[in-house]
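Model it.
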Amino acid sequence: MSFLIMTPLGSYTSNHVAVTAIPVTWLSSQGVFSAMVIGLIVGRLYIYIVKHGWTIKMPAGVPPMVSQSFAALIPGIFIGIIFGLASFLFAISSFGSFHQMIFSIIQEPLRGIGGNIWAMILVSLLMQIMWFFGIHGTNVLLPLVTPIWLSMDVENLNAVAKGVTPPNIIGLGFFNIITWGGLALGLVILMLFAKSKRYKELGKIAVVPALFGITEPVIFGTPLVLNFNLAIPFIFNNAIALGISYVLIKLGIVARFIGSQAIFGLPLGFHAGIEGHASIIILQLFLQLVLSTILWYPWFKHLDNQTYKAEMEGVNHVAN
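Modeled.
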């Protein structure tokens, strides 16, 4: 409700008739950041109002479903009024709407991100933070930077066609291959050797898809979403891999990517082979099988021990 209140109406012409309607602009990925902000504010406001007892209290004999509906009336009306006033203030501001302000401050600058490794690392971190909250960060942010990174790949392809060294270290192909599967394969490998039955079984289920870059089974099965025990590696592993890979290419240890785009779903190693050099295949194998496993290990080990202890306590309780 609050999101729609903050969304400005637009005027359109349909069959030569002027109509006023909600624009789909802010209902797509362009409105995701403002939706997150509004959602956080509404949640905190609702909790604050309820904790302070600003609700309609029904007699004890009223069914809970009915009393809960009345209890939500005052918080809902109060929050609606607040966002209505906020929407009016933003409408008369230079931004025109709250969505436009958030888009201008957060999302629009991303469009101007240049082709450098620090920008790529920043985008990766933002993607993973969104993934942590259950939002497909790749689908939300990648369209903003794909034109920049893809143009760099085209420059590399043109250079290779002329027989010269590709000018760019990074590009869309670089990003896709280095962050392949979100570096979750290492976590799946660790699960195969877990002490807890829960994660050992999950590892068996997730290992084959993970070898093809499909890591949703472990992302939502562990889960990694909203799992603070594994938040650090889930958010930062891609950024670490990008930084290490960039340095290895800069030093000449790994060849530069030619800029080809691999189809999604190719297995580990084959996905990197399209970039035209064996060193890139070795790099992907190292990142997925060695580095990823190391980065996940201390965090998963702690979680696995906790889960195993809980499982043993459950078994002992049943036995007793």
